[in-house]
Amino acid sequence: MQKITVIILSSTVALGAMMQGVLAEEIDNIAVAYSEDGRYFTNDDVPTYNIADDGTVDWPTYEGFRRYHSECHVCHGPDGEGSSYAPALKVSAMDMDYYDFLEIVAGGRVANKGGTEFVMPEFGTNRNVMCYIDDIYVYLKARGNDAIPRGRPRQKEPKSDVIRADQTECLDG
Q: How confident is the model at residue 21 (pLDDT cuts 50, 70, 90)?
């Protein structure tokens, strides 16, 4: 009986360790797997941020700061911290799947909580949001992970020619 218990316990520990590794792999939606033209991505091709040891942020994170504060902070508070009537997006960006984030920003959302209706308007046709949605997302990820402090990032990578061309095309489109 003792031998069976040891085998079951060993199998349970091994399975738990394996599952923990799988969960850690699934949860890692931040680590940079590769970069392309000044943008950074995870293994799942999801945009992410890149902060150098000296605090220099990648261009999309810096641009995300700018765009967030021009379009989102009125409701969601400065630096993704939330407000009395809208959630902290730095938390939402950490808890929410990238594609769910895009869907909610583009299409809006209505939520009823405690008898109160909360409405997130749709921004799918707002080029000042949608042309920069990945930038806003990576900025909020960096804030949610405490990779950058509150306020304007002090140092940034230069904007790549590809990012500049993509932005111009999107805004003119």
A: very low
Q: What is the pTM of this model?
A: 0.82
Taking residue 133's Cβ as centre, other Cβ atoms within 10 Å add up to 21
Task: Look at residue 27 and tell me whether its pLDDT is greater than 60.
Answer: no
Distance, CA of 23 to CA of 138 (rounded, Å)? 22
Average pLDDT over every residue of 74-79: 92
What is the predicted pLDDT for the residue at 6?
41
* CA atoms of 89 and 78, how far apart (whole Å): 10
DSSP state of 9: H
Same domain, 24 and 39: no
- Specify the pLDDT at position 155: 96
Length of the chain in residues, anyone? 173
Same domain, residue pair 26 and 95: no
pLDDT > 70? residue 97 = yes
CB 17 within 8 A of CB 35: no
Q: Which residues sit opposite 99 in a β-bridge?
A: none
Residue 106: which domain range? 31-172
Does 126 share its domain with 152?
A: yes
- Per the listing, tokens 């984030």 go with 101
CB 122 within 8 A of CB 107: yes
**14 and 71 share one domain:** no
Tally of structural domains, the chain: 2
Residues 146, 73 share a domain = yes
